[in-house]
Structure formats: C-alpha cells, structure tokens
Amino acid sequence: MTIIGDLLGNSPIGHLVDHARKVHECVEFVKPMIEALIAEDWEWLEELQHRVSKTEYEADKLKHDIRAHLPRRYFLPVNREELDGFLQCQEKMADYAEDFSVILTLRKTRLHPGLHEKFMEFVIQVFQVSGTLLTAAVEFKNLAEVSFSGAEARMVLELINNLGKEEWKADKLGRQLSKALYALEGEVSTIDIIFYEKMLLKLSAIANEAENAGDFLRAMLHK
Fold this sequence. Notes:
By secondary structure, the protein is an all-alpha fold. It has one domain (4-8, 10-222): Methane Monooxygenase Hydroxylase, Chain G, domain 1, CATH 1.20.58. It is 82% helix and 0% strand. The chain is globular and about 55 Å long.
C-alpha cells in the first residue's frame, strides 16, 4: 500500500456500526428472557443465557478487531478518543445484557405477579433505547460517507436527541418499578427483592450506556 493509502486507510465507522448491531442483538435477548422468567421456564432461560453469552463473545471479537485494525496514522474524520468512547459504551451494553442473563439463571427466582407488567414495560423501553441508538449509528455512518453537515446532520442530531428522551422514559419506568418491588417487602423474601433489584440495575445500565454512546456520537458530529 502507498504511504497515502496507508494514511487514509478504510474508515472504521462502518465496523463500529457492525459492532453496534451485534450489541443490539445482545439486548434483543432481554425480552424473551423476561418472558421465560414469567413462565418459569428455567430450561429455556438457561438456553437463552448461553445464546446471550455467545453473542456477547462475538461482539467482543468485533471490538478487538476494530481496535487491532485501526491504523495509528489513520486520518480519522472524527476524534479518536470519542470514537473509542462510543465503542466502550457499546461494549458495556453487551456486558450488562449478559450480566442480566446470568442473574436470571443463578437461582430460580420467581417474579412476583404484581411485577410482571411493570418489568415487561421497562424491558420494552430499554429495547427501544438500544434500537434508537442503533438507528442513530447507522445514519451517522451514512452521513460520514457524504459529509458532516446539512439536513442529514440535523436528522442525526434529532435521532440522538430522541435517544435522550427515550432513556428518560426508561429512567422514569425504572423508578416506578423500583418503588413497586420495594413495596413487596414482607410479602416476598429479602433475597427475591435483592435479585429483582439486580435485574433492574442491569437493565437501567443498558439504557444509560446507550445514552452515553449517543453523547459520543453527538460530540463526533459537532467536530
């Protein structure tokens, strides 16, 4: 490869989107896992946990590949630190999804019927946050192939802003769920409440990291 070719290389942004898609696949498992928990289908939960773990491993391999093939002399159209920050947030989302799957399989924790609807609503909103981030990342990639300005840039910024709104909705639902599970003190065992809280915290962390990833996209766009 020529010196100029070595300097320009291939844009890593497309690979970042590939990684984002794989991370979103990890998050996609959360809903069927809650459904399996509600149905008390422990065997299916174990199978789903293995699938999440495998998908997280595949996301991890993509992450290492991106870092290994990012030339040090590459003329990036975006800030290298912000690009890596985005990648780290995505990595944490996959990790938290896997952590969530592990929590559900550590013991046969029966989900109180009074929490079924609230947990499902929360899970669906967390999935919405992750999906909004993926859409923003895909549009950011398309934008980077053309320019970082104009109507297209404003559209990406709107998607990122909408991501913040979706995370706020998730945060609100999380607080409502937290109150509901602590209201069960005395009705269910303390260890059950601890596990409910662990589940809630991991789901909240997925949405939080998605919003953080959106902030890195915004920063890259502004520069």
